[in-house]
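Hi support team,

I submitted a single chain yesterday and got back a structure, but I'm not sure I'm reading the token output correctly. Could someone confirm the output below corresponds to the sequence I sent? I've pasted both exactly as they appear in my results page.

Thanks,
R.
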Amino acid sequence: MLAIIVCLVVLFASCSPKKDVSKNELVLADAGWDSIRVHNSIASFIIENGYGYKTDVITGSSSITLQGLTQGDIDIYMEAWTDNFKEIYNSGIDSGDIEELSINFDDNAQGLYVPTYIIKGDAEKGIEPIAPDLKSVKDLLKYWKLFQDPDNHQRGRIYGSPPNWFADEVLRGKFKTYGLDEKFDYFNPGSDTALNTSIVAAVEKGEPWVGYYWEPTWIMGKYDMTLLEDEPYTPEKWENGFACEFSGVKVTVAVNKGMVEKAPEVVEFLKNYKTSSELTNEMLAYMQENDARADETAIWFLQKYEELWTQWLPEDIASKVKEALQS
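Hi R., thanks for writing in. Yes, this is the structure output for that exact sequence:
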């Protein structure tokens, strides 16, 4: 009789449904910058609390993590800068190993910026507009005295890209193409940290500054900066002395092909995932100002932008995520 009872217990146990904890773990790519970490944290919170999967991350360079995505060591890539590693990314797409699900954002920009108060002033800081007609990169030649080089008062200063960046090559070419070298010195800041420091120092004092920057970044989320207009991008102009604006980069959410069978409901969620450079700027500024981790920033985003992320999810999943946020 005891043997029969034991057998029945084992039989019923084997027929019972599996719990969520038995689901596979999903691995996301951390390619080394803050914005991908924030998007990873947002997606992970939703995946874990809404869909019941565990998540983890693999850290590495863009090329290494994209290769990991192709091979299946990584399941999800929340911020793939497709133009920066075209060969690896497009090869994965062509082979079918990578599935592109959505465009996270494609309104990113880079080029020469000035603090907006130079053009429009800032009533709160008591700053009057000092270059209201400054609109484009080519207009800078008329305003070189405004951006005087502290080491050479006979010329202006434009802060360039950190060394060894492709943007450095572009800006040096543009500098000559537009004749900016007639009035300006091209100042290499040495690093992105030094470039940040120069912007913060100028903006905090309400002083003129012009130079290279890009977005999304915390600088663009914290300070009001204006991207100077340039000629519309065409391949011909670009190849002829970089005589046009930087082209925007499509930043996608992509997964390994195995995700379609491994976690189809998560794939459907990621197909709806879409933010913007402006929103990512804001998240990065929150991180900077509050000395917050990526996961803390994700919670802040999910609490502040409920109307946005609930559109990505079925109602029952969204309810689970909301409940987790309140716990």
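A quick pointer for reading it: The chain is about 45% helix and 20% strand. Let us know if anything else looks off.

Best,
Support desk
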